[in-house]
Amino acid sequence: MSSDLPKLKRPLRKVVKNFYQALKINTDLSTDLLVLDRGAKGGHGPTLNIGIWNIFKGNGGVKFFRDFTSIVHSCDLWLLQEVLASPHGLRDYVPETFKGIHGASYERMDGLREGVMNLGHLKNLDQKNQVIRFSKSEPLVRTPKVSLVTHHLLGHVEIRVINVHQPLVRGRKRAGRDLREVMEQVQEFDGPTIVAGDFNTFTKRYFHEVCEVMANCGLEYVPVSLDPRKEIQKLDHIFQKGFVAERCSIVKEAKSSDHFALKASLILRS
User: Which residues pair with 198 in a beta bridge?
Assistant: First the structure.
């Protein structure tokens, strides 16, 4: 492992606090989508710079927002997981010229919604936004996980983006079934597609299970160049079809979560 790779932590105090907030949750939401457009003008293509990051609910506080502000403009599109937001608080995550689409999994005792967010400059086709719930919740606290499907225009080409946050506690075969559930619920689409996020693949066997499902859906894995992460830290991945993957690397500047952010450059196939 590279000596200059930052050490990431998930403080026990923060884990306990989040566990308490999730003891009583509301999954019966009037809408599971929150959208804030602050002037996104679209991407010209054919290159798409994409980032993924499980932000651990922003529990780094000031450090998180310092990290977030320093990296958010480096990508055309971000896929974020564990995003806590209220309708008003969504503005904290969406800079000017960006559009944020938040898919909620549940609402906590404090009124904040936990979920995933697709955030970027690209024009979003709102009518195709879709939140997909995994059928199995996390044990004990029974919190659900979701995936968010959005469609965007990259130049004049429509692309599909699926932001995945898979359950943590489940067997290897269940990990494959969960992912197949998502892919079976999205409508047919032949265009360029990205499936990325936190797959919670904490062993090679879990990773291979996910790769097999993605391969059966026609998606290729985007490898991380000289991946410096320990095996148990390789939870976050990017899969694609219809693009050429130019590079993918760790974002070392983002240190305030227990996940490493990834950034990749994808070029539309002609």
Answer: 165, 236
Residue 199 and residue 51: Cα distance in Å, rounded?
Answer: 15
Task: Kindly state the helix (H) or strand (E) to which residue 77 belongs, with its residue range.
Answer: strand 77-85
Asked if residues 20 and 226 have their Cβ atoms less than 8 Å apart, the reply is no
For the entire predicted model, the pTM comes to 0.92
Q: How much is the pLDDT for 46? A: 95
- Residue by residue, DSSP assigns 2-67 as -TTSPPP---HHHHHHHHHHTSS-B---S-SEEEEES----B--SEEEEEEEE-GGGTTTHHHHHH
CA proximity to 22, closest of 89, 136, 112, 104: 112
| Length of the chain in terms of residues written | 270
Q: What is the pLDDT of residues 88-98, one digit of tens each?
A: 889 999 999 99
Measured CA to CA, the distance from residue 118 to residue 40 in angstroms comes to 13
